[in-house]
Amino acid sequence: MFKYKISYFEAMEDISIVEYKEVDLSNSMLVVAFPTVGLVSSIAGRFIIDSLKLDEIGAIVSKNFMPATVIHKSIPSPPVRIYTGNKVCGPDGTCEQITVIISEFMPPMDTIMLLGDTILEWSDKKGCKPIVALEGTHAVGDIKKQELQVLGVGSNPKMKSILKKHKIMETQEGMITGVTGVLLFRGVLMKHDVLCLLAEAHASYPDSRAAGNLLDKLDIMLPGIKIDPKPLYKEAKEIEKNIRKFLEQSKPTAPSMPPIPHSMYG
After folding, report:
1. pLDDT tens digits, residue range 63-90?
2. Looking at the predicted structure, is the pLDDT value of residue 29 above 70?
3. Cα–Cα separations (whole angstroms), residue 232 to 43, 117, 216, 219
4. Virtual CA dihedral for 42, 91, 23, 57, nearest 10 degrees?
5. Average pLDDT, the chain
6. Cβ density class 206-238: b for 16+ within 10 Å, e for less
7. What's the total number of domains in the chain?
8. Residue 99, domain CATH
9. Is residue 3 assigned to a domain?
């Protein structure tokens, strides 16, 4: 399902992972950031990539993905990209690298199951663990008058204990759709360490405040990363502006997109 050192066009018949260079990721934590409610995952993922100066090492490609190029710091890249860098991280501080899979656009619904399976298979082969999926979820009530929460879901007792250790409330009931939903239930079936962090967010626009809350919680969980909380919200707003720009620029040339899948809680 994933391939090494193949041409972009050879990969286009299916969902495939193209590595620009082969990197040993056997002791890497994998962060997955696909956009859902408030685009908080994309904003947070971009912040991690920029603040830690991670290198782009590959992409996930498919003929069914949006025909678009993301340009960041004058470099054109596919919509779904893979970055990595050396950094002590992981909930228990045992990882020596952090790898991020990020996209500003949600892949089509009929590709999400295969996409989630491809990411899990690739992470197994590369030896990445744990997987930390970043998500946004609808805030309940008047979010202008309340403190937005960050909730968590773990695929097994080990991941649940991490949430408890860092005093992150577990989601008791609900549904998570999209790539994160696939990663969680496949993680249970495959006995893979998968942790999902969900930031309550405003659904109608990119929510940098919610992304900031998510990153603030990551800073507590992953002390080796050392995310500076002071400029965090300001930088998140800049990233939010860039993502807004991507979305606006894609409208004239991109085909209409289905509604973005989101997390639902009762």
Report:
1. 899 888 888 778 888 999 999 998 766 6
2. yes
3. 11, 32, 8, 11
4. 10
5. 79
6. bbbbbbbbbbbbbeebbeebebeeeebeebbee
7. 1
8. 3.40.50.10900
9. no
